Task: structure prediction
Amino acid sequence: MEGPHWGAAAREWDAVDCKTQLESMCRSPGALREMLLFVQTVLAADPRQPSFLFLLKYIRAAGGLRALGDGDGGAQQWRLAGGAQQMAAGLAAAVAGAGGGEVRLSHIVESVAHSAYNSAAAQNHIECGSDEPGVYTVAGTVEGSGKPFSLTARRVVVAMPPPVWKQVAFDPQLPEDHRLLAESMVMGCVAKVLAIYPQRFWALEGEEADSSTGGGAGGADDEVVRDAPRRPPRRARGGAGGRRLEECGPVANLFPGDYGGRPALVGLVTGADARAFTALPEGRQRAAVLGQYAEYFGAPEAAEPELFVVKEWMSERFSGGCFGGLTPPGLLSRAGAAAAGRAAGGVHFAGSEAAARWVGYFEGALDAGLRAALEVLAALRPGLVGSAATSGGDGEGPAAAL
Ligand SMILES: Cc1cc2nc3c(=O)[nH]c(=O)nc-3n(C[C@H](O)[C@H](O)[C@H](O)COP(=O)(O)OP(=O)(O)OC[C@H]3O[C@@H](n4cnc5c(N)ncnc54)[C@H](O)[C@@H]3O)c2cc1C
Result:
């Protein structure tokens, strides 16, 4: 697993989708079911969508299969009390506090143009990644007011998922590998469902079923990071007759928690199920999820939340879905495993899809952001940062990505 994209079988693995490959590999129906559910819930994908090589790279970027699971040391171990947006808000405050930095929200970037475009030198600059000086004009409109804006920069960092690169007109256009990613990478599909209840009715792992009523499931709100609340047992204790959560309805992943001190269930509907679910009218979405909870927990009170909210991520204009971008069969082989993070002239790429570690996670966004920032520093202040500082851990240098 050190570098699945370098392996002799890489092209073969990239030519096939996850479902087909897993069906040919898993001898036990139980193992196959778990792996397909893993792809659906962790990548938020229909297992027929991403290539098997993409799955291997994704697992490798997290440090192994276990790290992506629910247990200790895994991706779900911690929860940010108060919400994940605090990370972005904290980074923005740090930029502002660092003397003269400015974060402009609601500025929709529509174009990134090199000053010397139309000259052969500019085209060469973008395609060959030369360090020839130049100025970029970044332009767009302010959301709400519609006012145009523009600014100039010697380097630009694009930290958006590749499928939304298409919304920006790059002049000269991006190299072919980047265009391939923008055109063909797809985002995962997620609908997030929040149900808030007056009282907790679910048992948590390790709890006796009959002690499950009353009290919130979460910890103190003033902690920045806390252990994620324990999850409900995988098997129902009541009316579901031992059926698994995903056999009772559309929610495939369930996180108990608290919302403003009130007990809450956060459910994720993922992959192809998310598309089918969000096509339903509101009333049927509600009935499907609450009916699932009532059956799974054997608790009729599940049908009576104080608040029920569905958030659909696929139609978000600036991400197009989540948790991250996926490559369908053949794309990694055509675009190159490292394309998403490879700079094009003075245009650098960050964002979780361009990370070497924890692709598709916040940690990946930080990893790629740091790498891109070091690339820019190395170019503009060569004395300050050595080129080694921008090298990724797997020997592909700063372009180690995807
Ligand atoms: C429901 C859900 C649950 C998740 N749970 C977890 C989790 O538990 N743990 C975890 O680690 N990760 C989780 N993720 C994934 C995590 O959110 C992403 O990995 C992370 O946000 C990626 O960060 P990023 O900076 O690469 O991209 P983004 O967060 O997508 O940031 C890109 C930014 O670019 C902006 N943008 C896009 N186009 C333009 C434009 N034209 N002009 C100006 N701005 C533009 C967008 O508005 C956005 O602010 C979850 C995601 C979702 C949706």
